[in-house]
Amino acid sequence: EHSTFTRQAVTISSAGCPPSRYNNNNHTATMAEEDDVTSIAVCEFFAKCFLSLDPPESLSELSDGVVMFQALSEISMDHFDPTSITHEAGDNWALKAANLRKLVRNLQDYYHEELNKDAD
């Protein structure tokens, strides 16, 4: 059994997450629980949509752009080659920022070249 949190019109189940973190009663989520549920939902999205990835376990694992590059490389390796960025940025904010800038630039190129749209 997994508890269910309701946030506005969206219901998110804690299935696939450690049941010890939740009680088995339905309840209204507190702010911290809503943040936790959002984190779980984002991580589950990556796990279910991009099967070749090691899914992130927390939102902090998305802060360097590596997981996003890996996910988007399944859509277009030409635009999102994960070997073109730094994978071991650690706590180095400059390397993380460089990865994220490249991600945004490549997204803009993808929109323009493949979708014939401006990314503005």
Q: How would you portray this structure in words?
A:
- With 120 residues, this protein is mainly alpha-helical.
- Helix content is 41%, strand content 7%.
- It has 3 helices and 2 strands; from the N terminus they run ββααα.
- The protein has helices spanning 31-49, 66-73, 93-114, and strands at 4-7, 10-13.
- Residues 1-27 have low confidence and may be disordered.
Q: Could you name the ranges where pLDDT drops below 50 across 5 or more consecutive residues?
A: 1-27
Q: Give average pLDDT, whole number.
A: 77
Structural category is mainly alpha
Largest sheet: 2 strands, antiparallel
Trace the largest sheet across and list its strands. Answer: 1-2
- How much strand? 5-15%
Helix content: 40-55%
Report the span from N to C terminus: 44 Å
Shape: globular
The overall strand count is 2
Radius of gyration from CA coordinates: 17 Å
Note the total helix count: 3
Give the H and E element order.
Answer: EEHHH
Structural key phrases:
3 helices, mainly alpha, 7% strand, two-stranded antiparallel ribbon, 120 residues, disordered N terminus
Please outline the helices and strands.
Elements: E1 4-7, E2 10-13, H1 31-49, H2 66-73, H3 93-114
Antiparallel strand pairs: 1-2
How would you briefly describe this protein structure?
The chain is mostly helical and 120 residues long. It has helices at 31-49, 66-73, 93-114, and strands at 4-7, 10-13.
